[in-house]
Amino acid sequence: MANANVLGVRIDPATPESLLDTVERSVTAGSGDIIIPINAHFLNLATENAWLKDLAGAPGVHVVADGKGVMLASTLRGVRLPAQIRFADWVFKLFERATEKRLSMYFLGAQDEIVRRAATQVRKRYPEVRILGTHNGFFPKTSEASQGVVSAINEARPDILLLGMSMPVEEQWVWEYRNRLHAGIIVLGSGCFEWLAGRVKSAPRWVSAVYCEWLFRLLQEPRRLWRRYLIGNPLFLFRILRHQFIR
Hints:
The model has no long low-confidence stretch (mean pLDDT about 95). The strands form 2 sheets. A 6-stranded parallel sheet has the order 4-3-8-7-5-6, with helices on both faces. Strands 1-2 form a two-stranded antiparallel ribbon. It has one domain. The protein contains 12 helices and 8 strands. With about 250 residues, the chain is of the alpha/beta class.
């Protein structure tokens, strides 16, 4: 099946199961591939930051549709993606596969208390999961501090490095340090540790199905997210329609 292209970003025609197989292949090969679930916010940022498109199009990077808006935009561009990879659901499939195959993990992101609580909650649900360590995502993004974080990860040598920093902070950090990280695969999860820890709730599936996940999140964190959704969503729609008519 052909890749989709939305606003200049290539999107893989993945399914939840095929993406898990990608994880296994990367870990087995030790190739350090990167999985990036994207939404309308990512595409807005990529339109304004050329390096994000470079990252999304780099070899070994698997970009998948997390948001309903991305699915709709892809269909308008003539490619119907086989499935939405809703990260709030898929990450639990990842934990199941990691437990089944004895793949180790490392959590990087959020505040120390949040990422540790997320690891605790995941261990409660999957007692045999192998989480080798955690580190907060609020370290200074200087070369010295980042190298210390890279060293901690490399000492653990996880099969799966799960990131949970804000967008595009995690993308920029991975883009800079990807060749120094010793992990079988790197999975970008944005704010995943916040809801894995129970600090915020992830949207129910029916909310996502009716294209209202953005509203669910906005009502939970209006101060942080109002600009992303109240300005970003109309901007995304405008860009998609403009791109559609000038292709």
